[in-house]
Amino acid sequence: MRRREFIAGTAITAALSFAKPVYAQTDARSPGIKRIAIVHTAEKPEGMTINGRLTFKAYFGELKRLGYVEGQNLLVDRYSALGQSEHYGDLARTIVASHPDLIISLSGPIARQLKPLTTTIPILVSSGDPVAGGVVTNLARPDGNITGVSVDAGLGVYDKRLQFLSETVRNLRNVRVLIPSSATMFWETGLAPLREAAGRVGIRIAAVLLSEKLDGAAYERVFDEMETDRVDGLMVAHQGEHLTNRQLIADLAAKHRLPAVYPHREFVDVGGLLSYGTDLGDAMLRLADMTDQVMKGAKPAGIPFYQQIKFELVLNRTTAKSLGLEFPVSLLAVADEVIE
Asked: Assuming Cys at both sites, which of 16, 45, 55, 175 could form a disulfide with 78, CB separation 3.0 to 4.6 Å?
């Protein structure tokens, strides 16, 4: 299996390096074998497999069902920025220079870096709002060589998450939204209506920004800050870096006894309190179907962006009890799943 893993170079050289097998340099392939490059902002390359988390199991499992077997008629190059947003541009240039048959970008910001670098390599994207994010200008008729799946639930979903959190945590007053520093503009512009709505019901809400290097120390630092500031509720934003670090985030929330609402059920599966958002497994099944279409000759411009319409509310009663909380009957009645 061929893997290219993105790593930061030493502080002395400030270089970027990629682990490559020797034969990758020749790109010698038998006829009929396709090569895709898949890139994530933070997930380690070894986690982006059929044995990885739910989303990757869904994607590679569906590709296998469609007849694409890695190591036989499919080669996969895996790339990760390992949580370092300052390297997105270098990573994008390296991927394009490798000339894959198809690029799978599991990040809107990285897709924006890829966009001006090639008009010929098809790019499939799984991201938030691709129009607001500058990836395409039209969902029904995507630009040129880019299409994909929008896992954006609309900014109104943050209002719903705050509502569900406030119904669970009585007298909620001091809330933080956990976002990477690279998403500061998302907080300043996109979530302005959330801040206004929170203010109307007496809830103070602010962003808590992670440093550019998203490692364990960065997360621990912001949780310590929130404890000092007596934060009583947390909203975890939808960025992929958080999903990669879901276990760490859930563990820190438990350690600091901080009730939190998450964007996807994967957080609740590892001990998070509750989640409300789109079904990422379904999104990756759609992305696999688009992969099949492109492999068979379809042009991305002819494939509309798929917008998710399936949302799920998942509650973890065990975590609620550990925090001294109890979900109201109103939430239990509408939940898609309750983990006991």
From this structure: 45
Of the candidates 229, 218, 223, 214, the residue with the CA atom closest to the CA atom of residue 256: 223
Structural domain boundaries, residue 187? 156-277+311-339
Provide the domain count of the chain. 2
19 and 121, same structural domain? yes
34 and 172 inside one domain: no
Show the beta-strand stretches assigned E in 12-136: 16-19, 34-40, 74-80, 102-105, 123-127
229 and 298 share one domain: no
Q: Average pLDDT by consecutive 10-residue portion of the chain (340 residues)?
A: 36 31 42 92 92 93 96 95 88 96 94 95 89 81 90 78 95 93 75 84 91 85 96 92 93 98 95 94 95 96 88 96 96 95
Of the chain, the end-to-end C-alpha distance in Å amounts to 39
CATH number at 120 reads 3.40.50.2300
3-state class (DSSP) for residue 261: strand
Question: Contact, 175 vs 232, CB < 8 A?
Answer: yes
Q: What is the pTM of this model?
A: 0.81
Which DSSP letter does residue 77 get?
Answer: E
* Residue in 177, 188, 142, 183 with CA at minimum distance from that of residue 290: 142
Say yes or no: 217 and 71 in one domain: no
